[in-house]
């Protein structure tokens, strides 16, 4: 029985120094910006890997093309924009603390759990979050659960596109829960 690593090989908790040589720029593909955070690098790396253009990312995620291009040099992405772009590329956004940032007791228990599950630390955190959400849903009343699930389905159908106002979404969820109540 071989022990699985606690972090994937490409997971870094320390800053990486920028490469010393310049990258060749190819105007036909999405290039990797040099002076941005790792989450923005992930967006551009996945866009290049999946051969996704700025326009198709805008169409699917609702994040404007100009906004995405501005992440390269001018602006830092907001959380909602970053989550929408990552969701379009097939990723979720879940901050994972390093073991050194956690209290020693919690770090030990998390390490033991990761080893038992044969998962790395980020996968273990994701599993714990999923379990917590399931437990919360089990404790809720059936009506509340239906509302939460309907809202979740609405968000999934929109591909995390936040172009609609929150008020409209909540009104549609409330209308959906009223319909469910009438049917029950």
Estimated radius of gyration: 20 Å
Strand content: under 5%
Q: What is the succession of H and E elements? A: HHHHHHHH
What's the shape?
flat
Number of strands: 0
Measured distance between first and last alpha carbons: 52 Å
- Spans with pLDDT under 50 lasting ≥5 residues? none
Number of helices: 8
User: How does the helix and strand content classify structurally?
Assistant: mainly alpha
The percent range for helix content is 55-70%
**Mind summarizing the main beta sheet?**
none
| Average pLDDT over all residues | 76
Account of the 3D structure:
The protein has about 180 residues and is mainly α. It is built from 8 helices and no strands. Helix 2 (about 55-60) crosses helix 4. It is flat and about 45 Å long. The model has no long low-confidence stretch (mean pLDDT about 75).
Furnish the topology, listing elements before pairings:
Layout: H1 38-49, H2 54-61, H3 65-70, H4 79-88, H5 104-117, H6 121-139, H7 142-157, H8 166-183
């Amino acid at each position: 029985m071989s022990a699985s690593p606690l972090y994937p090989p490409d997971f870094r908790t320390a800053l990486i120094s920028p490469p010393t040589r310049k990258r060749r720029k190819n105007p036909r593909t999405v290039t990797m910006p040099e002076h941005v955070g790792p989450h923005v690098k992930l967006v551009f790396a996945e866009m290049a890997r999946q051969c996704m253009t700025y326009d198709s990312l805008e169409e699917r995620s609702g994040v404007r093309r100009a906004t995405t291009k501005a992440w390269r040099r001018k602006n830092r992405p907001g959380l909602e924009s970053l989550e929408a772009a990552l969701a379009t590329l097939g990723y979720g956004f879940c901050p994972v603390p390093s073991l050194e940032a956690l209290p020693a007791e919690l770090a030990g228990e998390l390490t033991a759990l990761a080893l038992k599950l044969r998962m790395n630390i980020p996968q273990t955190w994701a599993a714990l979050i999923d379990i917590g959400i399931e437990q919360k849903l089990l404790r809720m009343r059936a009506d509340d659960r239906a509302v939460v699930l309907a809202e979740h389905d609405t968000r999934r159908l929109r591909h995390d596109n936040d172009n609609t106002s929150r008020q409209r979404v909540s009104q549609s969820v409330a209308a959906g829960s009223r319909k469910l109540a009438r049917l029950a």
